[in-house]
């Protein structure tokens, strides 16, 4: 027994090996994505568009930084710091090339709950001035930023812990309708929080359950206290912002550089307020003193971490989910991949490191990311360039913002949330594709505005999982159908021979958010293997999945793919007769399969489709209207392929291959 144990121990030691230099380099590239793309950065092609995008992004970072700091109930200068450090950290650790990290409306709104609860406004007069305050700010302002910093630090620690636990793979339970509803509801909260600035009213901080409705009740009860000057200036600012941004969007192809209307409005409003002394003449609230420079780093206060744990979880989850959705969208748009777990690490470190520099909680914002799209940014260099201009504002231009009216800043916030607010239009899309997803959207939105963004997110996830659990027992999850593959040779009039493969794959399970990604991965693997010259057709059976549980494991087939033959053609028939039900994620994945296959010159035909599936796919995607893709049966689809090749003198033959069923 002793000898056997020694032998076993020696075998274990034999399998272990000292990390080699290549292993360390590969680990660093995986955890520090900047080491992967920076050495290959093309200065000639990318520097100019990244510079232009960086300048435009800096304008957004400064304006939103000031605005979201006020939203977070801290001094505006801390928003400038929050626009600088998180962007640098994410550029090093993040994988989203077009993701602009910085201050974020939703995380600011969540951290404001902790700030107002622990350091309420009514104790401001009780604090005494101190000569030891940072940057000349009052003790009251420093107490408030300490709370926001604690939320940022603990939120980042939670995100890093989720990275260590590899929970990024569990984000598939957060579906697109839930994210859309949560962000729309949170944007509605943000707009509501800016009403007091838009109207020039003095209003106490109102939060908690149904706080959304209490705010509007207070406004209507005190409607006589509205300052007409602030209201008119707010309306004028909103009209100018919306009009110019729409013109920029409409003529962006004809003009090389869009007009930075936010910057122009800030300069014009500040100059007008200074010349007319609006602060004293009309009683307009202004931003006030902006200290110059960056304070020396200081550790977050550890004694209040237990008091902000609820808000920290909200910041960690809401910030990550919203940021991941933007990163995945940019990766899909520009054809690259991201690691969900690595994004946990990137945003966690962004919050942790930035908290030492008095930064409020950070995340990626839709408006800034869309700005990078429209200005043609190529890499994260655009974000690093924007940080240079933010530094210039912090050290030189910041004090000039003293006269900026708060109502103008609130108008910039409201218009900046347009991308989130117009997600109301998604309701029609969800209704046409899957009415249950539409119901989830509405209920998640209602919970978000009645309670908070983190509560709405949790409700949406729980509701989605509960509905799927209720629907799955009605599905024949273990039904397996035979798959037949055909190949026939086509002799053209020029006597050149090409190989035409017709692949028939049965889908025998529901296609929902739980298995949509797995379905896409396996199907693409099958197509890639079948397009390889030297890959035997029998190897397809290696990807066989026999149960639904296997399809939920997020695994994939990792066989190597050879270079495809240039003369090979392929048609794919998806037999949807066993397709019991689907949701929005399933339909979007089917459309994505169709578009990807179209790009690979693979014709996709769907047989035995229900009317609801045809309606959903037709409504969701811009499908090819010239070629029919929906057929009553598999034989009808095969006849269609045969008829298209009739003019080329088809030589037809059938081959039967081993049984395989996708998602079965």
UniProtKB/TrEMBL annotation:
A Pfam match is Sulfate_transp
Q: Where in the cell is it found?
A: Apical cell membrane; Basolateral cell membrane; Lateral cell membrane; Recycling endosome membrane
MF annotations from Gene Ontology: chloride channel activity; chloride:bicarbonate antiporter activity
Q: Does the keyword Protein biosynthesis apply?
A: no
- Gene (name only): SLC26A7
Family the UniProt entry places it in:
Belongs to the SLC26A/SulP transporter (TC 2.A.53) family.
Q: What's a GO biological-process term for it?
A: iodide transport
Which UniProt keyword terms apply here?
Answer: Anion exchange, Cell membrane, Endosome, Ion transport, Membrane, Transmembrane, Transmembrane helix, Transport
Q: Which residues cross the membrane?
A: 145-165, 203-220, 226-245, 257-277, 304-327, 379-397, 402-424, 444-469
Keyword tRNA-binding annotated: no
- The chain positions of domain STAS read 492-641
GO-annotated cellular components = apical plasma membrane; basolateral plasma membrane; lateral plasma membrane; recycling endosome membrane
What name does UniProt use for this protein?
Anion exchange transporter
Q: Topology relative to the membrane, per the entry?
A: Multi-pass membrane protein
Kindly list any coiled-coil regions of this protein.
none
Reactions the enzyme catalyzes: nitrate(in) = nitrate(out); chloride(in) = chloride(out); bromide(in) = bromide(out); hydrogencarbonate(in) = hydrogencarbonate(out)
